[in-house]
Amino acid sequence: MVTAMAMKRILVVFFSVLLVLSQVSASTVPAFLWSSQSSNNGLKDTVNYQVMSPKDLVNSVLSEGGWSNLLCSGEKLQHPVNLAIVFVGRELHSSDIAGNKRVDPALVDLLKDSFTKSNFSMAFPYVAPSEEETMENLLISGFTEACGQDLASINIAFSDSCSIKGGDFQRLADLHSVHDHLASRIEKRIKGQTDLVVFCQGGFHSLNEVDQTRPESEIMSEVINTVEQSGAKYAALYVSNPFRSISYRSYRELERFLAESVAGNGSTNSTSCDEVCQIKSSLLEGVLVGIVLLLILISGLCCMMGIDTPTRFEAPQDS
Questions:
Q1: How many Å apart are CA 80 and CA 33, to the nearest integer?
Q2: How far is CA 34 from CA 17, 79, 197, 216, in A?
Q3: CB atoms within 10 A of CB 250
Q4: Distance CA 30, CA 241 (A)
C-alpha cells in the first residue's frame, strides 16, 4: 500500500512537471546576443536557461553582454563598437529552436550561425514577454532606466513598425531609408560613439503588401550584410515577440476581410495555423502525451498489483 501511494505521488509530480514544461516552452520566446568584437569578460557561446522577464533580459544584456559600456557612460572598450542593433521578431517561440517543426528554418539557422561564429555570443532561450506592452518599448524603457541621460546623448533610430512610447526618435520608413541612415551615420558619427538602431518585424507602413510579407530572416540578413559591408563594428540583440503580432495580425485580417466584403469578393477560408493555433496545439500535444504516459503507468501498476503469489510453500509429501 505504501509503495502504491508513493508511485501515485511520483506520477502526479511527473505529470505536473510535464504540463509546466509544455506551457513554459509555448509561452516563452528566445533571445540571442552576439557581437563582432570580443567582450571584456571573455564570454562566448554562453546560454542562460533561466526563465526571465524582459527587465531581467535588459539587465543581463547591459551587465553580462557589456552594453552598459555602449549605451551608458561605462568602461570604454579597447575596440569600440560603432552600432548596436536590436531586432524584435514576431515568429519564434522557445520550442521552435530545439524542435523539428520550425516556423522559419532560415531564421533559426541565421541565429545559430551568428551565435556560434561571433567573437562574443549569449543565448536566452526562455524569455517571458509581456502581453500588455511591446517588447521594443520594454527594452528601451529598461535601457533608459539603467543609463539615464546617457542614453539621450546617442543617436537612436527605429523602424516605422516599432511601437515606442515617448521620446523624440528618428523613424525609418522603409529598408531604403535604413540603408541611407546607416551610410550617413558612418560620416557623421563621432569617434567612440555607439548608435542604436531598432528593427521591429511586422512590415514597414510605407511598403506594399509584397514587401511586407518578406521573410524575417531575409530582412535581418540584408541589414546585417549592409552593416558588415560598411565595415562598422556592431553588436546585435534578437528578441522574438510573437504575442505582439497576434493582435496586429488579427487587426490586419479583419481590415482585409472588411475591404473584401465591400468589394463584393466575400470572405476567404484560411487553413493556416497562426500563433494562437500553434500555442494551443503545443499545449494539447503535451496534455495528450502526458495522458498516454499516465495510462501506461497506471496499467503497469495494476498489472504488478494483480500478481498474487503464495506467502508460503508446502513441503513435498513423501511417497
A1: 17
A2: 32, 15, 15, 18
A3: 12
A4: 9
179, exposed or middle or buried, with CB in 10 Å at 0-12, 13-18, 19+? middle
- Helix (H) or strand (E) holding 260, with range, is helix 242-263
Amino acid at 274: D
Amino acid occupying residue 238: Y
**Which residues, in sequence order, are CB contacts of 215 under 8 Å at separation 6+?**
104, 106, 107
d(CA 69, CA 38): 13
For 150-193, how does the pLDDT look when each residue is reduced to its tens digit (9 = 90+)? 777 788 888 887 877 766 778 887 778 878 888 888 777 777 67
Tell which residue, 193, 192, 167, 196, has the closest CA to residue 181.
196
pLDDT digits 0-9 by tens, 231-277: 888 899 999 887 654 444 444 444 454 555 555 544 444 456 766 77
Q: Which residues contact 183 (CB under 8 A, 6 or more apart)?
A: 230
Yes or no: say if 73 and 150 are a contact pair by the CB < 8 Å rule.
Answer: yes
